[in-house]
Amino acid sequence: MTCFKWTVRSTAILLATSALIGCATAPAAQSSAEKEIPPEQQAYEARVAEMVKQDPLFALLTAEIASQRGDIYSAMLAYTEAAKQQNNPELAKRAVELGLGEGQLELALTAAKVWAELAPEDKQASRSIMLLQLGTNKVDEALPALRAYLAEVQKVENSNPGLGGVSPEKVALDMLTRIPDKTKAYQTGLELFGNAPDDLNIQTLLAQLANSSELHAQAVGHMENVLRISPQERFYVLTAQFMEKRDGSTDAAMKLIDAQAQLNPDWFGARLYLARNHTQLGQWEQARQRFAEMLALQPNNIPLYSSQGFVLTQLKDYKGAETHFRTYLNKTPAADRQNEVLIHATLSDMAVERKDFVSALKWLDSTPNAADNIDVQLKKSALFDKQGNAQAAKRVLNQYKAKNEDESVRLALAKSQLAESRKAPAEAATELEQALSTFPDQPDLLYERAMVAERQDDLPRVEQYLRRLIAVNPDNPHGYNALGYTWAENNIRLNEAMELIKKAVELAPNDPFILDSLGWVHYRLGEIDSAEAALKKAYGLRQDEEIGLHLLEVLIRSGKKEEARQLGNKLSVSYPNSQALKKLVQQLEEI
């Protein structure tokens, strides 16, 4: 059976298109050195050419339908062949447009060459060839045309300084960033413009090309030349961004910008750069200072009030945070507000901190589309539960209608956790099982159902649900860890527990809780040295209470009293009300 059955009947168009799509396979991307076309591709292109020759109108209709159905390769071949046979550059242009839209740059380049041959005076055609050569790494082929184009731009600029709209360097940056081989792009920039250290435009161009080529030291070097010529704020910030990539840290970059910010109290962009970095680093006091400085410079820059509000929240300056949030909400039209739901949630949380539950509830209820927002409703339910009003908390959850699987799962988990908080594990299990009847392989539901069973000492069901979790999600370490830890905690099936936890460690070698499980099963097996090593690594990664208690018990068992005493003192500061800790400390004192 052949791929095409030619006929002049228009009713055969869709059938031919289906055959076209069923048989065509776009060629894999080739480098400029890979010139040879596979025989099967040659044969296919010959069939398309024959189709166009026998019935051009039919072929073009088929090509257009093929393009609409996603077979861009066949459509481009047909348009390009029709352009050659009919001497019609518009058809080749159509092929180029299709190729550009779908990223078929090699085919688009072929079509663009046909377009230029048929319309040699059309500058758009020749420019398309140049751009496509750059986009397919055929830089040497594109270079003559690129030089000529840049000379034209320079000529316009010389004739009307400042009125041409763009400089040759800006045009070159746009062109060269299209080259996939970024190192070649930087080298081409040097070839085109040289490396004149006192030319601002050239140095800026080379810095950007070097940065995109991941030649960050060179990028910073070019920017240092720029700063010597023109020490402007925007150039300092750009230099700092390149320094971050060069150094792998923000230390030197922030030191540079901080010094300039002190010298230039009106530099807003420098302060914005610093504020963003302080925020990302969790340096909240420094971030607060920078946002305060920016607000002093631009008091009508209303989004800054929202940013400062979140910073003040981190510093627990709730009064200041609320003032800034209210300013932002009052001065920003509803349609333009960003993070409004998060702001309301944060204001609600701050009210809870003050034990002002009425205000907390008002902030949630005044959130836009609150009744239809699951996050708001979950917080509202949790707020009622925190006040001891379990019935109201449950009513909120029951009234909400989930819109998709994700919301259904989150709702079921919330209902289960609410039931558990009321010491109703059977109800919690029922909520989860109802959800599992609809989503039987949902990992979060399976995991939580197993944990409810574990709290009920129902070990057969623990195994049932965790085995199912492992089956449906074999690359997730938590199923293996949970089942292995369950056996270790109950001091049963320890060899099996070790195999499960080793699998979890293999999948997540630096997870502190999984390493804690590994240490604990070693301890249960009497392998004290291995237990101590695993638990010390886990505790080094996360100073968690349970990990600390496990390590303390192992240190006591191994007779390392002084080390155990130091750890016990540290844990007592962090967890003064821990009954399990008090028992271990008592054991230590009795040794």
From TrEMBL:
Record bears the keyword Signal: yes
SUPFAM superfamilies: TPR-like
Endpoints of the signal sequence: 1-28
Keyword Amino-acid biosynthesis: no
Pfam families on file: TPR_19, TPR_8
Alphabetic keyword roster: Repeat, Signal, TPR repeat
InterPro entries xrefs: TPR-like_helical_dom_sf, TPR_rpt, Ycf3
TPR repeats: 268-301
PANTHER family associated with the record: TETRATRICOPEPTIDE REPEAT PROTEIN 6, UDP-N-ACETYLGLUCOSAMINE--PEPTIDE N-ACETYLGLUCOSAMINYLTRANSFERASE SPINDLY-RELATED
UniProt-recorded name of the protein: Tetratricopeptide repeat protein
Organism field: Limnobacter parvus
